[in-house]
Design goal:
The structure holds three protein chains of three kinds. By secondary structure, chain B is mainly α. Chain B is built from six helices and no strands. Chain B has one domain: Up-down Bundle (Four Helix Bundle (Hemerythrin (Met), subunit A)), CATH 1.20.120.
């Protein structure tokens, strides 16, 4: 359960600034060829970082109960199961996929 | 500071239990939203893998400037939303409303830019099923890319519209002085929803706009 | 209370009257009734479709209906029964009624959301009935692409809107249950003192929350493809029809656990009451509910063994499907162990409960045959599959639902149903059910495919047996409808606890007051404390009203 954590404007502003910076970073890095799948991985990693900032600070998850963390994590974990199972099928099809 | 009542609904024992239930209820709802968008992310992922070249090529037809601006706009709106929630926690009626209004304006700007992009896509014949035209060797999987583009951003835009509706509702309540230090749950909950819709865009932006930039 | 009542006690049914007081209620108990009436209606609609199917299958030729019509019949039967009867049944009726009462709360966490759930359900039903009236859908309840997304000329979009809408209703119910169970338990009611019905409702709600949105988006994409000619599942664009199946079955497999877990919860309540014992291995049964919910999300590909899925994925899903049988087996063993040296009363609810154990076991075991890749290649899309899931859905879930309705009927209505009629109906249902569906195992094994309205003549005898069984089953289902309604007016007045059960819901009047308890209960013992008297288990504290 979330106690009455009132976060400072400064903290919010710092998170805000970081999010903008990461946005510029991800757009900039997109133009540099990192080879292989690294561009995609970098983009997703930066996106995860931004999402974490929003979840932890804007959405107060950092200051919330463990139950909230479980609810917050459950969706993403389940999405991993969905994508994982589907990808496992697609990657292991022999011959022409579709 | 307002004197909004802190009476709780009759099924709860006290206002703290009511707050805990409402807070957790919204997180549970957001988990369902993760899975809802997740189905589309799943489809997108496997086609991205299967048709890497076509997807990268199609992605380069999206306007990266508008996309980046929109990402920044949404991040700003999350900032203003967080400040609105903070104002509600402090029981400051006017700041609540100011930050809500800013959030709504930024949300509207986002939608305006989005629909401008949609219009451009119609112009460029990049709408599947509607006079779609693309380089022949990549046309069919490119059509799949654009199908996902419209489905993902369309469902996202629908959530933004609903969000703006919720913000309007909050604005009315705030104007009527319904929020206080003791009771500001609706602002918090709409905040959670708004931040979540921002997070969806945080993932949509690189997946849709940035795939093929390094390939020129 | 004898027949002379000088002062009428107020309870949730008579506290106010009129259509508005029902249609605008936020009382979870009244909402349970709204659902009960709605899903009964849908049950008989689905049953009507089943009747037409079984009549067609009396003869090998397609002489009753054309093949296009037959396709619509089995589709509408599946859609109605799955989405509008089975999925809501126990959760929305018994769950809504009992969850707050079993945990000592005044209502669910979000009563207005609960009412909205029902209205959303009705809107969904309206869309689907409209689709049926306009000519129906012929894709099968599974809506496989690209037939559903491109080629079918029937009312796919309208139907999927209906299913999407009713799915949203179930999400909100699950949300309500999860938050309520976490937040609003009575003092002293720790997790391991909860009735197993609550564990079952909680596990079911996990599935509602995490699974339903995926079928929602899958069907949305089908609708978008139909309406806007996107190419998402269209092979002509390089789309993958199997992708749809992944998204569809990611929900629809856990959906079958939505349909059976609540029945297992009811089962625990019935077995303990009618053996006068604690459920054997309480923690195992509680954890097994959660295990089924979680592992149930890992096995969806077993519906796709022959769909074009990779062999590797098939093997993984097959192995995981074997694993998911384990927690179900644990429950069956524990219920059976509870029966041992129990003081068994063969009441009507208990007859349903015993039938459940046998029929669910058969259904579950045949599931293992289907989970075996090599066997499934032969029996996939045959009547073997149909028999398997009807044993679980009808022999299991519907029996549990009826058992629960009978068990809690005195609590819900303040009336006792006629026990002899109820026992006879239970037996008729058991006999009719087995005669309907056991031959279908044989038919499937012999190779009769599903979803065909013609079949080779050598299958006729078994089909006739099955249809005969279905007519007996129909009689069995109509009987409770009649005598339960009869009992509302003419049944004996029920005491607070006619079964002398130990659940919290029995420690308040029948029917209960609107806020469920006059005084807040404090729980001092685990569930099913049949070796003690209720007064030793519950203490009543301060007045429940705020």
């Amino acid at each position: 359960m979330k106690a009455e954590h009132v976060l400072s404007v400064r903290l919010y502003a710092t998170v805000f600034g970081s999010l903008l910076a990461l946005t510029l970073l991800t757009t900039g890095v997109a133009f540099i060829d990192l080879g292989g799948n690294w561009n995609a991985l970098a983009a997703v990693a930066i996106a995860i970082g931004k999402a974490l900032l929003v979840v932890l600070y804007f959405m107060h998850a950092r200051y919330s109960s463990r139950l909230t963390w479980i609810f917050a994590a459950a969706g993403f974990l389940w999405l991993t199961i969905l994508i994982g199972g589907t990808i496992d099928d697609v990657l292991t099809r022999e011959g022409i996929g579709f | 500071m307002s004197e909004a009542s802190a009476v709780h609904a009759h099924q709860f024992d006290d206002i703290s239990q009511q707050h805990e239930a409402s807070w957790n209820g919204m997180w549970v709802f957001l988990a369902t939203e993760v899975m809802f968008f997740g189905g589309m992310f799943t489809g997108y992922t496997i086609y991205r893998y299967a048709y890497a070249q076509a997807f990268a090529s199609a992605s380069n037809h999206l306007d990266i400037v508008l996309g980046t601006i929109n990402t920044a706009v949404l991040i700003c709106s999350s900032f203003t939303m967080a400040l609105s929630v903070r104002s509600a926690q402090l029981g400051l009626r006017k700041p609540i409303m100011i930050f809500l209004l800013l959030t709504m304006i930024l949300g509207a700007v986002f939608l305006g830019i989005k629909f401008t992009e949609y219009y451009q896509k119609f112009d460029e014949h990049l709408v599947p099923g509607y006079d779609f035209s693309y380089e022949p060797s990549l046309a069919r999987p490119a059509a799949i890319f654009f199908s996902f583009y419209f489905a993902l951003t369309g469902v996202h835009a629908l959530h933004m519209i609903i969000g703006i509706g919720l913000l309007t509702w909050l604005m009315v309540k705030a104007w009527r002085d319904r929020f206080s230090r003791e009771y500001n749950t609706p602002v918090e909950l709409v905040g959670l929803y708004w931040h979540f819709v921002d997070i969806i865009w945080i993932f949509l932006f690189p997946l849709l706009y940035l795939l093929g930039r390094h390939l020129g | 209370m004898n027949g002379h009542v000088t002062e009428r006690r107020l309870h949730y049914l008579n506290v106010n009257y009129g259509v508005k007081s029902w249609l605008l209620t936020t009382d979870h108990k009244r909402i349970a009734w709204l659902y009960l009436i709605s899903i009964t209606f849908f049950f008989f609609i689905g049953g009507l479709f089943a009747t037409l199917i079984r009549l067609e299958l009396l003869t090998p030729q397609g002489d009753l209906v054309q093949s296009e019509t037959y396709n619509k019949l089995f589709t509408m039967h599946g859609v109605t029964m799955v989405f509008f009867f089975l999925i809501p049944s126990i959760p929305a009726v018994l769950g809504n009624f009992l969850v707050p009462m079993m945990i000592g709360a005044r209502d669910l966490a979000f009563p207005r959301l609960n009412l909205a759930s029902w209205y959303i359900f009705i809107v969904g039903g309206f869309f689907t009935i409209a689709a049926a009236a306009a000519g129906g859908v012929d894709t099968g309840w599974t809506f496989y692409t690209p037939y559903s997304s491109i080629y079918s000329n029937t009312h796919v979009a309208l139907t999927v809107i209906g299913i999407f809408t009713t799915g949203f209703s179930s999400i909100l119910t699950g949300l309500n249950f999860i938050v309520t169970i976490h937040t609003m338990r009575a003092p002293g009611l720790t997790w391991f003192r909860l009735p197993l019905f609550i564990w079952a409702m909680y596990a079911t709600s996990i599935i509602f929350i995490l699974g339903t949105p995926v079928i929602a988006i899958a069907l949305t994409l089908v609708a978008l493809e139909r309406l806007f000619h996107f190419g998402i599942f269209d092979p002509a664009y390089g789309g993958d029809p199997v992708l749809f199946q992944h998204l569809f079955w990611f929900y629809s497999h856990p959906a079958v656990y939505i349909m059976i877990l609540p029945g297992m919860g009811v089962e625990s309540e019935l077995i303990s009451c009618f053996t006068r014992k604690r459920v054997y291995g309480y923690r195992f049964v509680a954890f097994s509910s959660v295990a089924i919910a979680i592992i149930g999300f890992l096995v969806w590909g077993h519906h796709m063994f022959v769909a074009g899925q990779s062999v590797h994925a098939g093997m993984v899903f097959s192995l995981l499907s074997f694993l998911v049988a384990i927690p179900s087996a644990i429950k069956v063993f524990n219920w059976t162990a509870t029966l041992y040296k129990g003081s068994v009363l063969l009441s009507a609810p208990m007859l349903y409960a015993l039938g459940f154990i046998g029929l669910f076991t058969i259904g579950g075991l045949t599931g293992l045959f289907l989970a075996t890749l090599a066997v499934d290649v032969h029996v996939h899309d045959t009547y073997f599959v149909i028999a398997h899931f009807h044993y679980i859905m009808v022999g299991g879930a519907v029996m549990a639902y009826l058992g629960g309705i009978h068990f809690w009927w005195p609590k819900m209505t303040g009336r006792i149903y006629p026990e002899s009629w109820a026992r006879i109906a239970a037996l008729i249902i058991f006999i009719g059910f087995n005669l309907t569906f056991f031959p279908q195992f044989v038919l499937g094994y012999l190779g009769m495919p599903r979803r065909y309205h013609v079949y080779p003549p050598e299958f006729q005898v078994l089909n006739v047996m099955s249809t005969a069984g279905a007519s007996i089953l129909a009689v069995g289902y109509v009987l409770p409808l009649l005598y339960l309604i009869w009992s509302l007016r003419y049944g004996a007045i029920a005491a607070a606890n006619p079964w002398r059960a130990r659940g919290l819901e029995w420690q308040t009047a029948s029917p209960p007051p609107t806020d469920n308890f006059e005084l807040t209960p404090i729980v001092t013992e685990a569930a099913y404390a049949y070796e003690k008297e209720p007064e030793e288990v519950y203490v009543f504290g301060k007045p429940a009203h705020v």
